[in-house]
Amino acid sequence: MNTVLHKAATRGHANHGWLDTNHTFSFAHYYDPTRTHFGKLRVLNDDFVDGGMGFGTHPHDNMEIISIPLAGDLEHKDSMGNIAVIKQNDVQIMSAGTGIYHSEYNKNKDSKVNFLQIWVFPKQQDITPRYDQITFKPEDRVNKLQQIVSPSKTGEGVWINQDAWFHLGNLKKGFATEYEIKQKGNGVYAFVIEGEVTVGGQKLTKRDGYGVWDIEKFSITADSDAEVLLIEVPMS
Amino acid sequence: MEKMNILVIGRHPKIMETVLRLINGQPGWTAEGALTDEDALVKFNAADFNLVLIGGGVAESSEGRLRKEFEKRNPQVNMIRHYGGGSGLLFNEIEEAIAK
């Protein structure tokens, strides 16, 4: 088994006033050559956006971009004509493909929005841009791993143009389970949203990240009530 | 200090505009863009570039052909793929290429 540990406090940090952001991997002006990606997972940003503020219209191409709101509401607009609000328990995905423009704003004027912004390198380049969002039932991830992203168009969760699976778990103290790698050669990056968990023998606290690979399965134990995100991606 | 001169090759005019604006806004870096292979060849032969960024929409066959042509003029040419089409990874990719 190979592992990599990224403690929360070691993440890159930038405070732009309206945006307070933490970068698990190198992003924008934060550059650490030892932290550029975990396999095909390239970006894991933990963004806090002030009320009424946000990311103005800007472009992307050839990237799978997943947004997971943790608190507050995010208003999305894009060049494909999609206008949507995503909130807690929603997951949004964009395949930027040949090119897309979008904006993401905090819909509320008087409270921050906190969301995870995750970028995964695409399996196929230059596909037609695509947008999707799904609302998940929070009760379906209590002491369970709820699949929220899948490479199968008929699978549970939003479809991603990559051999990647994401799961969320809301685990009560003392609950233990195992995660089996779905595709040989993949690794899993565990990100602790809340609480304390032990993943593959490694104790983790809030906003820590821990990657494991060259393994078929690993254990997860909640050391307190905890919420964890598992991101399985190809390692090459 | 001599400027880092970057040739950006892509197919999406608005993304090209954004990438050029971002690079040219950085002290010590300058960039020109090409939306076609033909324009890329003309520009590469007319100036000395330290780095070539290949953006979205450029097929592998185009990249291979351009690499061969560029290497005739500069066997040490540094060509990398730019992902994401904007600000997020752009500076990282350039920093990484410079470090190599």
Explain what the structure shows.
- The complex is a heterodimer of chains A (236) and B (100).
- Chain A folds into 2 domains: 11-135, Jelly Rolls (Sandwich), CATH 2.60.120.10; 138-234, Jelly Rolls (Sandwich).
- Chain A is globular and about 45 Å long.
- Chain A is built from no helices and 22 strands.
- Chain A is 0% helix and 55% strand.
- In chain A, strands 1-20-17-22-15-13-14 form a 7-stranded mixed beta sheet, with no helix packed on it.
- The model of chain A has no long low-confidence stretch (mean pLDDT 97).
- In chain A, a hairpin with a 4-residue loop joins strand 7 and strand 8.
- Chain A has 236 residues and is an all-beta fold.
- Chain A has strands at residues 2-6, 12-15, 19-23, 41-49, 54-60, 64-71, 74-78, 83-86, 90-95, 100-106, 113-120, 130-135, 145-150, 158-159, 165-171, 176-180, 186-194, 197-199, 202-204, 209-213, 217-222, 226-234.
- By secondary structure, chain B is an alpha/beta fold.
- Chain B has one domain (4-99): Rossmann fold (3-Layer(aba) Sandwich).
- In chain B, strands 2-1-3-4 form a 4-stranded parallel beta sheet.
- In chain B, helix 3 (60-73) links the parallel strand 3 (51-54) and strand 4 (79-81).
- In chain B, helix 2 packs parallel to helix 3.
- The mean pLDDT of chain B is 93.
- The A-B interface holds A 26-29, 31, 33, 36, 42-43, 58-63, 96-99, 101, 119, 121, 125-126 and B 11-12, 14-15, 18, 55-57, 59, 83-89, 91-92, 95-96, 99.
Compact description:
The complex is a heterodimer of chains A (236) and B (100). By secondary structure, chain A is an all-beta fold. Helix content of chain A is 0%, strand content 55%.
